[in-house]
Amino acid sequence: MKITVVGQGYVGLPLAIAAGNAGYTVYGLDNNVEKINSLVNGISLIEDLTDDVIKESINSKRYQPTTDKGVVANSELVLICVPTPLTPDHKPDLGALISAITTVGKNLTAGTLVIVESTIEPGTCRNLLLPILVKQSSLKESEFELAYSPERIDPTNKKWGIGNTPKLVAGLTNNAAKRAEKFYGKFIDSITICSSLEIAETAKLLENSFRLVNISFINELAIFCQKIGIDITEVISAAATKPYGFMPFYPSVGVGGHCIPVDPIYLANAAKVVGAPSRFIELADQINQEMPGYFVGRAEEKLGGLKGKKVLVVGVSYKPNVADVRESPVEALINGLKQKGAQVSWHDDLVKEWNGEMSVTLSSDFDLAIIATPHDYLDLTRLGKVPILSTRGSI
Ligand SMILES: NC(=O)c1ccc[n+]([C@@H]2O[C@H](COP(=O)([O-])OP(=O)(O)OC[C@H]3O[C@@H](n4cnc5c(N)ncnc54)[C@H](O)[C@@H]3O)[C@@H](O)[C@H]2O)c1
User: Fold this and answer.
1) How far apart are CA 42 and CA 23, in angstroms?
2) What residue ranges line ligand 1, CB within 6 angstroms?
3) Does the pTM exceed 0.70?
4) What is the DSSP letter of 257?
5) Is 259 an annotated catalytic residue?
6) Average pLDDT, whole number, for the chain?
């Protein structure tokens, strides 16, 4: 069976490779020409897939990266994995999704199953995407199928990958859900069918909102623990000895990436529209955005002022061991330090270049080092006697 995966990023690329390995012939469609050129040359753009894996999939003809939208017409199944970010004024930005679904609609043939994996608010598949598909394809609703299956990938997670992370699916019709279940069943161990598209759409937003709320709560508690002079990480470890009813979350400079700071805003937006505002999400979002400023204050306190001080920020990606800097709270940390007059440099061998600046070497030539994102590769002994401010508790 030929399939197209639209969007070859953190979600679409591993999915395309896994589907190829399961025996499907996969077109990896993306409108980023540079990205497709890299993939065609066997260069992987994400940490979880090596160049060899990409090359092997291409050579075996199981995977073909392309910018040719015509591949959609040649596919029995089309997956949509394009970004659903926020606008500069912090509202859902469906531009990429609408553009992708319009492309798919224009090339859609009767009998095709379209599965949306991008994170969206409840009602988006039924009320926004379905009418676009009908209009652009000139097909009737009954002539193709639509399903939703939220992605749960956690980049660099060694324990939970595509195959063993349970998958939710929901269809506009029972048949769509069954076809989606059959497709994923070839390479995913456990699949749960939800009774409606809206259940699956909301479940994904619940998962990520749960993380945002809890991480913001633990960050707020970390500020309290620091004030009374106790180590939050020890408090969490102690609480986590309770075998039920508690789940540990850990402090940081804030949440980042394309999911946790973004998806809850989709839920909060939907909640506001129906007059049931989510105050938890709004507060958690506010606390999250305040965390970089809090650590700027801690640095200022530690050095007795930041003007002219040489500060090194260590780790700039949104979480350890990835090169992804989307929505990284470290950007606000660096900007806050600069605003207070500090001379800020940053070190991150995974990111290397960011916002027109290059990663500097870890050395003892600084007044303060702020450990923002503790990658496993870091050798902090190279900082010598530089005072350290950790954003992860302990110090
Ligand atoms: N990154 C994650 O860990 C993660 C986890 C779960 C869910 N998600 C969700 O999955 C979706 C995709 O996220 P991602 O991290 O893979 O994004 P990404 O930015 O890594 O990749 C998206 C790709 O889509 C391409 N694209 C954009 N518009 C397009 C169009 N109109 N036609 C063809 N290609 C287009 C981009 O060039 C890019 O390569 C989002 O809705 C996100 O919320 C992401």
Assistant:
1) 20
2) 6-12, 29-32, 35, 81-84, 96, 99-100, 103, 117-119, 151-153, 155, 258-259
3) yes
4) S
5) yes
6) 97
